[in-house]
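Reviewers asked in the last cycle whether our approach scales beyond single polypeptides. To address this, we selected a multi-component target totalling 438 residues and predicted its structure end to end. The input consisted of the following lines:
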Amino acid sequence: MIRPVTGRGSVRWARLVVYLLLLLLAQGLLARLSDAVGVPTPDLFLLTAVGLAARLSPVSALLAAYGLGFMQDVLGGGTLGLHAAGLAGAALLVVWARRYLSDAGLVQALLGVLLGVAGQWLVFLFLTYWLREPLVTPQMLAVTPPLVFVGTFLLFPLWERLLAWTFGPRVTVEEQLA
Amino acid sequence: MKGWRLILAVFAGLLFLSMVLTRFQVAAPAALRAGVAPVTRLSVTAADNVRRAYVTLMQDRDQSAQVKALQKENDLLKQRNELLSREVGRLKQVLVITTTQAPNALAIAQVIGVDPSPLQARLDLNRGARDGVRVHMPVTVPAGLVGQVVSVAPGQSTVLALVDPESAVGVTLQGNRGGRGVAHGTPPDRLRAEFSRGVPIKVGDVLVTNSQGGVFPVGIPVGRVEEVLPMGPNDISRTVIVKPAVDVGVVEDVTILEGL
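The resulting structure, written as structure tokens, was:
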């Protein structure tokens, strides 16, 4: 159950459009800069999926995360469904854990991002096994997910504000219990 | 529990969909990406500008450090060049003196002090007994005679300049034109020389040292006659005012010669 952002429906849609534009812009910017530095890019799509999983009902969160990942696949020009399944996996773990976590705090943010990265890469591993292709190699697994986690976590405070501006505050534990 | 079944079922469905899509390598048409091309281009441009700005900043910092290092090196080289130039100047001076005045140069010395009295003209040199300097050694520069050493300490010595009132130098006309005279110092900056009446001396003549007194080598320039004083009826010698060849007030490096 999403808590609506105060304001008219058109305003919410406008905020959503602005958010998506900022998401594309910031992700492209980070990708270009991190390529130049030679480190994996922080994943703002993942942050968005984690943020949605903390705000929407579980099924809606899964569908939204999958849709978001699908958009990432389309814009990236890669195989469709890869990132979509990854973000759905991330959302699934966060949805599972959110009943045990409060809606704010550093540790909660850390665990949220950690579970998101873990869920995403578990799905990537599964798809690697399924496709019988070297999609994820042991070397990549040792380096990329930790760096993605660190980079993404560092951006979490800033991006969470944007998420709150677009989708409203997180669902509290009391609201979940209710 | 029932809720989780639904969640897992949805996830399984989505995962199955992805498995099918990835298995058949379904790719999105490029036209879909074209719609967001302006945003992508904007982010790439912004990132490139940020990267260039950072690179430029780093380069500027490096160049600034390089400039500082080069300036420091330049200062050191200038200082070294100055020292070498002075050394070359001194060696040239010795060469000129040994070829034109006397072959027995002892050392080059620097003037480290001057007598503050307006009535005296004495110079302190940074060479002394330790360097082999002895009393009565002549002191010269390429332009001419400066004076002679009158006292020696272990590390320094004092020179009695030609214009000091106590100074007396035997002189003669340059070019073997004859005549013997003695030039006495006349403060602040002139000499007064006396010749016998028969010497044909006139204004502009150059006086050089002669062997009188056994102190100075022969032929070192002493000065130029500036004025020939009129002779009285009872005078037995002709007196001339001589402008010294060397201005002791500006001398920095001098050469000490071995005595005769």
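The mean pLDDT of chain A is 87. We regard this as preliminary and will revisit it once experimental data from Aim 1 are available.
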